[in-house]
């Protein structure tokens, strides 16, 4: 059984989400050629500290940083390091915070300077797939509606969807039930209800859908070495439909 959240709980997730949105906004303008992924993690940590929140990922199952930085063929969970971003890279930035016992989680993929037209299209389609998925997060809809929206948008544009990682419920834990796959059929799966808080994540590969895990135990990369993009929002299902809690810009 999925525990539905009260309005007071959603309000707590909303507060944590405003911080997450602010961190991503701040990081976006900080991404430049020459900037290392570790620099980005440090910035994220400073933003989170200033907001008096706690990084959700640091220490989670031994994860060593506040931020996931997934460059080019990295799909998700890239660990910040000394790699310096260069023009033409795409970098996924994924951050989570905890505030007063409630979590929020969101991600964007940023283009570093000018990128190839295919990479730009990949990033745009992955973002578009997220907003199409969120549109389907309606009370009385089903998880499969969200999954199908992601898959049809990605595959309709000639890309593939990741199958080994999924979006998730969120609340007093960063990962809660239900899992939200990037593939599926409409009108299948768990029924969506008012009071659900979900971290919907789109993970789209330019080439084949298969991924592999690097020896660091965290970084997922595409098996074919082609680029991958990632976007994520924490949303709540309300009487009026989906509310994007991590909305930025
Ligand atoms: N948004 C990612 C996820 O839900 C980030 C998790 S990183 C981890 O999987 F370190 F917390 F695992
Ligand atoms: Co997540």
Which molecules are bound in this entry? 2-amino-4-trifluoromethylsulfanyl-butyric acid, cobalt (II) ion
CATH topology: Creatine Amidinohydrolase
Report mean pLDDT, rounded to a whole number: 98
What is the element string, with H for helices and E for strands?
A: HHEEEEEHHEEEEEEEE
Quaternary state of the chains: single chain
Distance between the termini: 35 Å
CATH homologous superfamily placement = Creatinase/methionine aminopeptidase superfamily
- The CATH class is Alpha Beta
How would you sum up this structure, described in words?
- This protein has 249 residues and is α+β, with helices and mostly antiparallel strands.
- It contains 4 helices and 13 strands.
- Strands 6, 7, 8, 9, 12 and 13 form a 6-stranded antiparallel sheet that branches. Strands 1, 2, 4 and 5 form a 4-stranded antiparallel sheet that branches.
- Helix 1 crosses helix 2 (37-50) and helix 3 packs antiparallel against helix 4.
- It is globular and about 45 Å long.
- The N and C termini lie far apart (35 Å).
- The mean pLDDT is 98.
- The structure holds 2-amino-4-trifluoromethylsulfanyl-butyric acid and cobalt (II) ion.
Summarize the structure.
By secondary structure, the protein is of the alpha+beta class. It is 29% helix and 28% strand.
Topology:
Layout: H1 7-30, H2 37-50, E1 54-55, E2 67-71, E3 74-76, E4 90-99, E5 102-111, H3 117-135, H4 143-156, E6 160-161, E7 167-169, E8 176-180, E9 197-205, E10 211-213, E11 220-222, E12 228-238, E13 241-244
The chain binds 2-amino-4-trifluoromethylsulfanyl-butyric acid and cobalt (II) ion.
